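Hey team,

Sharing the Acetyltransferase run so nobody has to redo it. Sequence (714 residues) first:
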Amino acid sequence: MSFEPFLNPAAIAVYGASERETSPAAHILRNLLTQGFGGEIIAINPKYETVAGHPCVASQVAGGRRADLAVLAIPPQAVPAALRDCGAVGTRAAIVITAGFNDGDGPAGRERLLRVAREAGIRLIGPNCLGLLRPRLRMNATFQPAMPAPGGLALLSQSGAICSGLADMADGQGLGFSFMVSLGNSYDFGLSDALEMACTDPETTVIAMYVEGVRDGARFRAALSEACRRKPVIVLKAGRHAESAEAAATHTGALVGSDRVFSTVLREAGAVQVATLGGLLDAGRLLTAAPRLPGGRLAIVTNGGGAGVLAADRLSDRRLHPAPLPQDLRERLDGVLSRNWSRRNPIDIVGDATAAQYRATIDACLDSEGFDAVLTLLSPQSMTAPDLVADAVLAAHHRAEKPVLSCFLGGASVASARARLRRQRVPDFDLPENAVQAFAAALQASTASPGAPETPRIAAPRGPDEASGLARTLAELGPLPAGLLSDTGSRRLLASAGIPCPVPQPAATAQEAVRRFVETRGPVVLKIASPDISHKSEVEGVRLNLRTGDAVEAAFREIVAAAQARRPDARIEGVTVEPMLAPAHPRELLVGVNRDPVFGHVLTFGAGGTLVELLDDVATALLPLTPGRATELIARTKIARLLGDYRNMPAVDARALAELLVAVSDLCTALPQIAEMDINPLIASPEGLFAVDARIRLEAEVTPLLTGERDDLG
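Structure output:
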């Protein structure tokens, strides 16, 4: 769609125009009339002929007018008629400020609202939103009074309060906006649309998002990936914990899903996630000044050692480090600084440094090939004039291609210098750690956005007819009901997908368990068999390395008795018997899959075993997986370092492990009924990979293909 009616309207109609101070429409009309919007303003209210001295008409049709954009701040039951009026004259964009809609099809129902909008050919933002700001046009189609300066930052927000607050504080923060949009309940126009609008807007150089929830995960991923390939995207995700997630779901009506999964979506697209509103502002301030950082070598210039040390610490926290001082730069600074300067980065030019020494140091760092950006720190000293140092920073900012950051610590004594820096859009920060955090975020955006990996195509479920081994296994198992599969059924499915997996044999009695042991011809493992017990070790339901029939018989009785004592409600079907695997140099891993309500199947990989929750060493990826993404997923875990040569342990076959993860991904694509999968542990050793325990839960019944349908499967 064209976003021109939203971003560049020549005429705006305000439905509900009034002079009542409690009326949102009155404030919207006043903002448009008094803040310099140069287009036509159409006041609409059948009760008035004029409002605030401005002509008012009953409708666009009655007044013979046509707006590009309509803003509706009227009772919910009156909105459908207003949309029909818009459609009759050709208005194709609307912002519904009004709240109070319900899910039904009545006069104030969501379904009626959407049906009328579609019939009229109208895209609508809202309802229950603040509105839209376009500073370059002096267009304030909101009911808050602030008009921020124009700039390159677009704010896409699911909270009107966030828009209102940032609009009011923008000037003091040195921020300028291309546009701000409050999305409200997003009945029609949602985050994906807003991303596309910002992506195609030539005035927008950086996109900032405040997100509480997403409705269409696949579309959001596609829109975000495209945006990140073209512009830096910064995201603040609210509702990261259980209590706040519940509030977010209530607020927006969108699905929240897992915070870890959402972070995975952002990382795979190339977006930068920040944890706080301050972090969003700081990263936006730097990226609008320098949308693409040339590199991560930051020179820290300071007149106080402590401030420089804090900045260096924060760099190291973000896995960056102060760049070393080139020899030619050290010699150049020796000629302009006192003999007590630090001669290393952070460059401490000591407390009595003059503005001239600041200027010489900043210029020398910018001229050096050893640095990509300069951070200037100043703490108030009687010998240092903040305003003169600000002059030096401003001069460098205007002449240099490299980014120049500043942080003037203090209050009243640096206030005027800080205000001057921010007015001229120098990326200035309140604290050293804030400056470094913004630098790290901007660097991440600069390195991730241009080469952001294309989100894999969201493959349509293939079904088992394209996987012959799986089809045969399903035919042998028969119809599988929804719910938790047996241990044997789970592992047979894994084996059919080419995942190395010893298939256990069921034993309902101790005598049958002994017979299975004899058939195995080697040491065995016994595990409790119960559809109600997922974590067998928690009920003492596992016995390892059983080497005699007597040991097997005794273990059977112990396992069953322990399970009955600990879980008297559980259905006990006996045990399973499987070969005891004892490969040399084993590592215990976890491979899991679950279905996120927003983004679909998600694979988790990491350290496994009984301490998996305690260690919490996992990384996640959305499916489907490619071999390259599987390799990257493994590398993001701490246990990845144990998979290579480590002390006396030979390396695991890394390629085989990545291929196993892809095989799990392919199984979930072929069998989309899988709701959960848990392979724990997956034993990885130089001898191979072995899934020694597995659990699969189906969300719907799986019916095998008929024999005749499988003739071509080979």
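Confidence is low (pLDDT under 50) at residues 248-256, 449-467, 706-714.

Ping me if you want the raw files.
A.
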